[in-house]
Amino acid sequence: MYKEKIVNVKTGEVTWRDYTPDEVAALEAAQAQAAKRLLEVEAKEAARQAVLTKLGLTTEEAQALLG
Amino acid sequence: MAKQTFTSGQVLTAAQMTSLQQTAMLGGDATAKTTSYVLTAADAGTVVAMNAAGSTTITVNTGLFSAGDIVTIQNRGAGTCTVTAGTATVNTSGSLVLAQYQGGVLYFNSASAAVFYQFATPASGDIEGVTAGTGISGGGTSGTVTITNSMATTIDAKGDLVVGTGADTFARLAVGTNGYTLVADSSQATGLKWAAPAGGGANWSLLNSGGTTLSGAATITVSGISGADKILILVVDAKGTGGQNAIFVRYNGDTGSNYTYYGGLVEGASSWASTNVANRTTGSDTAALLGGCSTNGNSLLSAYHLMSGGNSSGLKTFISGGATNAAGGSSNALYTLGGFWNNSSTVTSVSLWNNVANFSSGTVYVYTSA
User: 3-state SS string over B200-255?
Assistant: First the structure.
């Protein structure tokens, strides 16, 4: 469950409220986008690592070669 | 005393001399009349006083008085008394009708003609005196009267101020030193004093004492803000429960596309590439980006967000920056952004919004300055 925590500095009161369905939907959509982006980054990193492995080079050796 | 005919060798008594003096001063013995009266020769040099509740007359006839004789007439009663020309002529520039306590002198130019010189008495509506009220001085009841503005004369020199010291009272406050400003000070008699201007720097204070923990919610709001022109938000080691969490700032819970910001970020990677540096050009977002954090590599975001114009009706500008602390990995990033919130409302609350998950740890501090 997603919530909002509200701290009123004037009264000292702390209240909590549950996210509305629309807010939850927006959050879940953002989650999906973030997960997709993470997968893309990880795939790119894996591909790069595969190339290095195939060449028998470490990351530092590849960087030295590329100047 | 009545007009006398003195004879050679007559000895005047002290009483006669006193009476003569009184007569010379238009005074002397008087017999009050209670009804209308006709002057007789014996009235020459005396005071004829009328004292009646109703209207009466004093009649002047010819052949009784000599040129130079006078009769003083008084009206002591409530009823009007009218000096009436009987067989003699009576002229006056005043009034022959005497109200209570009015009077005059009847002066005979001849045995058949007299002039009544009325004693001056104020008429209804006449100004009888000028009395100095609050803030002025002077005044008087006769002749040319001068009144002076006391507040004006309190001023002695250039720059002087006249300041209230209490109800209906005031005092001079001399001009202060060049560059000084006037400030309230209740310990002063005038309630004011000149003092060197206070420093113009912002006085910051922490609104949420001890900070507000970032956990258990995807939005953390600090509300109850008022009169704050500048707001500084400091986020320390923020983390969310999601994978990749982007953390934003919102004002007054505004989710409209009113946030514009530009800048750049440097994304971490296991190897350096020019594409690790990217710019951000966000013309209209629903919140102002602060930075990101991730459970991947356990990256924590620490950041600042400084907003100006929070107590105005114009744009609220802000700058922000921050970075995550994970060692290596794609989840590490450095953010530096600036922009504005396009909203005319004054700021009453600020929110940290994690756009994918609840916060799991971290602290936010909110500082304000008027």
Answer: CCCCEEECCCCCEECCCCCEEEEECCCCCCEEEEEEEEEEECCCEEEEEEEECCCC
pTM of the prediction?
Answer: 0.54
Q: A4: which chain B residues are within 8 Å (Cβ-Cβ)?
A: 217-221, 351
The pLDDT confidence band at residue B328, using thresholds 50, 70 and 90, is very low
- Domain B14-118 fold is Jelly Rolls (2.60.120)
Put simply, the chain B residues between 163 and 222 with a CB less than 8 A from any chain A CB are 207-208, 212, 216-222
Is CATH 2.60.220 the right assignment for the domain spanning B204-369? no
Q: Give the contacts of B262 (CB within 8 A, at least 6 positions apart).
A: B279, B280, B281, B282, B337, B338, B339
Which A positions 27-66 lie with beta carbon below 8 A of chain B? 27, 30-31, 34-35, 37-38, 41-42, 45, 48, 59, 62-63
Contacts of A35 in chain B (CB under 8 A): 243-244
Q: Which of B26-40, B45-59, B81-95 has the lowest mean pLDDT?
A: B26-40
The distance of A65 to chain B (nearest Cα, Å) reads 13
**B221 in Cβ contact with B251 (< 8 Å):** no
The span from the CA of B295 to the CA of B326, in Å, is: 10
**Domain encompassing residue A19:** 3-66
Q: CATH 2.60.120 in chain B: give the residue spans.
A: 14-118, 204-369
CA distance B356 to A2: 10
Q: Is A16 an 8 Å CB contact of chain B?
A: yes
